Amino acid sequence: MSAAQPAPRKLDDLLARLAALHPKRIDLDLSRMHRILEALDHPERRLPPVIHVAGTNGKGSTVAFLRAICEAAGLRVHVYTSPHLVRLNERFRIAGELASDAQLEDAFARCERANGGAPITLFEIETAAAFLLFSQHIADVLLLEVGLGGRLDATNVVETPLASVITPVGLDHFEFLGDTLIKIATEKAGIIKRNVPVIVAEQQAEAQAVIEQTARKMRAPLFCATQEWHVGVEHGRLVYHDERGLLDVTAPRLFGRHQFDNAGLAIATLRAIPSLAIEPAAFEQGVVSAQWPARMQRLPAGTLATLAPQGCELWLDGGHNADGGRVAAAALADLGERVERPVVLIVGMMGNKDARAFLANFSGLTRHVLAVPILDNDNAMEPEALAAVARSLDLRADVMPGVTEALARLASLAYETPPRILITGSLYLAGHVLAENGTPPG
Q: What is residue 10's predicted lDDT score, i.e. its pLDDT?
């Protein structure tokens, strides 16, 4: 599930062997996880208290806010997320620090021995390695992001988390989760555990109904956006309130109106867990300091930035489905209200994504799309097919061999006002961009 450059050589060899153990990259079934965890003497039972996060969009940003707030409160935090952008190490944060190559090599080698050559997907063994690492280091909380879906995701073996969190649920991964919002929401709601609080972002009505029904069945206390808690923007600040009172804090550094919602979800989660005892000052510091690469990230400098038209704005966003396109387009619209510039998209997408639903969000914002491949990825959409979709939406579309060439092409055009360029469509593409630009995530 790598998004960019390969891991260091020894670890790369390990991962290559492990990836060959199962014919499918994704095979949602918990039996293999239970088997390997038993062979490892159940590290999932020796973890710090877990906050489990599922959803279609916003999981990573919500985790980033949770981490920043908890660390501002002086808590030690483990974090498991996916996919990585440049290096595998990004997925494993141990008490605030990225796992080292040596730590990962040791954990994967132990998992390989425990697995004994039995069929297992790479993500499953990555998750087992994460549990092994986290069980060996003291922390106050573990932020555990679902990989895909929820009910049968490899992370869904923790029996009693501190809280279950569900970000906005949308249409994505049809081939694994089902072709309707109800089916997808049912899979996401599968992380809800008996008597464990569930904190829920604002949802479409069908998804909300599924989550509420599951919570009632599991007797799980429910804390829903616009019902038990509210978040909004007032005078450029984030204003949050629930039955415990009001918080008025500085706006997130992460750009876009949706990041206020993600920050609100993180605040609601931590306020639903009294045992963590987060003080108001930590919410303020955490919301403003949270960082999450490739989510409406400005690239003001770097190798690629020097190739772009002089005076332009260069942005990067890993959005890759209809809802991801919607929030990125809304962020561009907000930028346009502040300073108007022509908008250009450089887009690369995976072959299983709905390119039309994604690009339709931008039809009123841009007239020019440059379609590019995602290098070293056999499952990427052909740029010619992507360009055809853009043209069907009455967008001008050019096919380019890569992001470097696309930026050089734009630099050769005569713009009265330097453009606002958004590179988007895939986290895999975003990983390549960060690596090539020389701005890898820390």
A: 86
Q: How far apart are the first and last CA of the chain?
A: 19
CA angle at 333 for the pair 331 and 339, rounded to the nearest 5°: 105
- Report strand pairing: 198-200 vs 163-166: parallel
Instruction: Report the b/e string of 58-88 with b at 16+ CB within 10 A.
Output: bbbbbbbbbbbbbbbbebbbbbbbbbbbbbb
Spatial separation of the C-alpha atoms in residues 140 and 50, rounded to whole Å: 9
| Helix (H) or strand (E) run with residue 143 in it | strand 141-145
Common-topology check for domains 9-289 and 297-437: no
The answer to whether the CB of 355 falls within 8 A of the CB of 325 is: no
Residue 2's pLDDT is 44
d(CA 88, CA 2): 7
3 state DSSP class of 200: strand
The CA distance from 267 to 303, in Å, is 37
pTM: 0.93
Contact 316, 294 (CB under 8 A): yes
The residue ranges of every structural domain in the chain are: 9-289, 297-437
Q: DSSP character for 325?
A: H
What is the per-residue burial (b if ≥16 Cβ within 10 Å, else e) of 125-155? bbbbbbbbbbbeeebbbbbbbbbbbbbbbbb
Q: Which two tokens stand for residue 383?
A: 């740029």
- Give 89's DSSP letter: G
Residue-wise pLDDT for 315-329, tens only, equals 999 999 999 999 999
CATH of 297-437, one of 3.40.50.720, 3.90.1150.10, 3.40.1280.10, 3.90.190.20: 3.90.190.20
Helix ranges (H only) for 116-233 are 122-135, 174-177, 181-188, 205-218
Strand residue runs (E) in 212-306: 222-224, 229-234, 237-242, 245-249, 297-298
Write down the architecture of domain 9-289 according to CATH: 3-Layer(aba) Sandwich (3.40)
- What lies within 8 Å, CB to CB, of 420 at 6+ separation is 312, 313, 315, 332, 335, 336, 341, 342, 343, 344
pLDDT of 376 reads 87
Q: Kindly report the number of other CB atoms within 10 A of residue 27's CB atom.
A: 15
Residues of the chain under the 70 pLDDT cut: 1-9, 442
Amino acid identity for residue 288 in this structure: V
From 29, 12, 10, 28, select the one nearest 20 (Cα to Cα). Answer: 12
